[in-house]
Amino acid sequence: MKYIFVTILILATSAIAQSGRTKPSPTPTPTRSISGPSVLTSATPVPKPIATTTPTTKIDDDIIKVDSVLVPIPVSVTDERGRAVGTLKLTDFELKVDGKVAEIAELSRSDSPIRLAMLFDNSSSVLIAREFEKDAAVRFFRRVIRPDRDMAALFSVADYTRLEQGLTRDISQLTQAIELFPEPKGATALLDGIIEVAEYLKSASGRRVLVIVSDGEDTYSDLKTTLEGVIRSLQVNDVQVYVVKTKEFENFKRTGQRGGNANIRALTAERRMIDIAAATGGAVYSPIDEEEMKDAFDRISAELSQQYILSYYPEDEADKRGEFRPISIAVKAKPNLTIRTRKGYYVGKK
């Protein structure tokens, strides 16, 4: 009996000791913060994309997930006098995909967050307008960016594209980055720069907007970079483009007259900027003086604050991955309104 009691005591003591042990906490993985201007190269860290939430349908208390990717469609609507129309409802819009009427999942207004990048042409072709462009850009950021909701980044482009200030809510950081711009010089790799900015923005959640301040001319991009490739990159990454074209400003400062030497390179640049903006639902502004330059930035700011955002969830398109789907938007029973929106999207964003 004595041996049995000792054995029980030993087992009980062992059990108590085991129950008091705890697993060691894993060592936390150190994180690294990156700040300040940096050159946008393959080594530049880009935050991981935020997954798009897909819609779900509830049936008999079971949640069935619909495997679909949201296609955001920013829409700007103006009347005959160019004034924004802000009283429309979801039922007023008609969406067509491949020419067929498609269901609009939901309609929201422009209170959704903005992720905006400004691409400044800093080549030798934009010397005269530089100081006023910088002042107008500062005013633009102060007017557009809502610190509690929006973020903006600043890029410059000449022979290469440089990230001057990463996405931030701090207007003072953007202002400082603009003030620290070096003197314009070199050639212009504009198309390459647009693609780099589109790739940068693809990781950001919210309305993705690119504002280009440039004469539109390209003298240095990779020969493999085409206009079609640029538009595809913007559409794949859901980036809407506005252009403040500085060529007319430069010509007016030199000659005192609207218009200028319509050489082939300038005409090509103008057509290219129009095509990029039209394909993404944006617009091109060609100011000739300080007042029109300020007005151009003001109009972009006003439009962003008055947009409609339509949400479309495509049906199963697994067999069409990588294909382009053209879309169009109309406002039913109101033919006199002007509507600007993107021209389509790529299935699966491949």
Please tell me about this protein's structure.
It is a single chain. With 350 residues, this protein is an alpha/beta fold. The protein folds into 2 domains: 67-109 and 308-349, Sandwich (Immunoglobulin-like); 114-306, Rossmann fold. Helix content is 31%, strand content 25%. It has 8 helices and 16 strands. The chain has helices at residues 2-19, 130-144, 171-179, 190-201, 227-236, 247-255, 264-280, 290-306, and strands at residues 56-59, 62-65, 71-78, 93-97, 100-102, 106-109, 114-121, 151-157, 161-168, 207-214, 239-245, 283-285, 308-312, 324-331, 338-341, 344-346. The strands form 4 sheets. A 6-stranded mixed beta sheet has the order 9-8-7-10-11-12, with helices on both faces. Strands 6-13-3-15 form a 4-stranded antiparallel beta sheet. Strands 5-4-14-16 form a 4-stranded antiparallel beta sheet. Strand 7 (114-121), helix 2 and strand 8 form a beta-alpha-beta unit. Helix 2 runs antiparallel to helix 3 (171-179), helix 4 (190-201) runs parallel beside helix 5 (227-236) and helix 5 (227-236) runs parallel beside helix 7. 33% of the residues are buried. Mean pLDDT is 81; it is low at 1-67.
